[in-house]
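W.,

You were right to be curious about this one. When I first looked at the sequence I had no strong expectations either way, so I just let the prediction run and decided to look at it fresh. Below is the sequence, 446 residues in total, followed by the output.
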Amino acid sequence: MGLTVLIYDAGARADAISHAYEESPRISRIIVAPGNDFIAYNREKEVLIDKSCILKDPYSILETAKKYEPDIIEVAQDDAVACGATDLLRANNFNVFGPTQKAARIEWDKAHSRKFMEKYNIPSPQFRAFGSESAAIAYLEEIYAANPKTEVYIKAGGLCAGKGALDAATLEEGILRVGQMKKFGDAGKIIVIEDWLKGEEFSGYAISDGNTFQMFKTAQDNKRSHNFDEGDQTGGMGAVSPAMVTAPYMKQIEEEQMARAFSGMKAEGAPYEGILYLGGIIADGAPGEPKRPMNIEFNARWGDPEGQEVIPSVENYVELVLTCLEGKLEKVKIKQDKKTRVGVVGASRGYPNDYSKVRGKRIYGLEDAMDVPGVEIFGAGIDVKDGKFYANGGRLFTVVGEGENIIDARQKAYSAMAMINIEGNNLHYRTDIGWRDVERFLSGVL
């Protein structure tokens, strides 16, 4: 009898993680809580979905674990990590892969995270944090009086599903953005204002057992809702991996970002165990200065949609997790294939705003798209009834094409996406995912 694994997560990232466990002969049963219907569709091993689990409630999470008594638990979602699920599960003698609440503060408390980076010399933007709108606005008035061309990001201090960072290029925009922090509830009570870094963004990932760490391939997310990086901020509309822009900077990323973060958390008495996600940017230097990797944020788990492109490349995921649980990561090396992957998110029309009219509508063509060679589809907001698929969310699925290069992978992803539709023409997706790396590949210039 093989091992049972329980994954706490809901969307397409959870689907990708579940497939990584399914690949191992050591795993016989997979539970995903709360998951979604599509994750259990057409699987080779036993995959169960438990929708009764509430990811913001650590005691709901504990009850689910007691129900199944898994051999391995992966806490993969930000709310679950932030609420202390890892700590509670470990206190009840479960083997848990994921950071403690204290270590995960590097994600769920943006002001703390910036102060941590400052203390441990992690390259990051200048910032200020405020506990009131009036104080934040007073600061904006001060900096715009000094320089009317100032550009800043205004961020909610807590978790906002990737939507809590808003840009401002004028005082009027800044004041508007500060007011918009209210829509994030408790997460927006602390307001962080920081320099707007210009450059090209990327995502970096590392795994750690609290003592040593290793890095995976990088990725590049596309946060805006529409082509040309226009529209509203979303949880992510697609990604590529590896991100070609990071190739000349990998040593800097590892030494200045990841290594300093892991050693700093250990020094703070919060050794980090699990997946650490660096949201970074290859920032433009001042005139005459070179570009440099800078920190936009740290997250305490895999990204979504970037995880859907990085995780499938890992050939020994379960071995890595098990050695981390033993505190012996130094005994095994990450094995990753050399393929390029392009993931395109299929969303309900209207996302990230009002997409309520799409809920319950039929999704056509997923079965055909799943049969395209070199394509995987990871489900998020999908209901499955009598073998048919229905929309039940904003981001519905990620179509991932894999190939020998960016052109090959991208062609497969979009060929599969072209087979899919939502009743009433209600499918939305970007058609330009990976365009930067296409240009680099064709020109031969990084």
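Here's what jumped out at me. The mean pLDDT is 96. And, maybe more interesting for your project: Residues 250-267 form the longest helix (18 residues).

Coffee later to discuss?

I.
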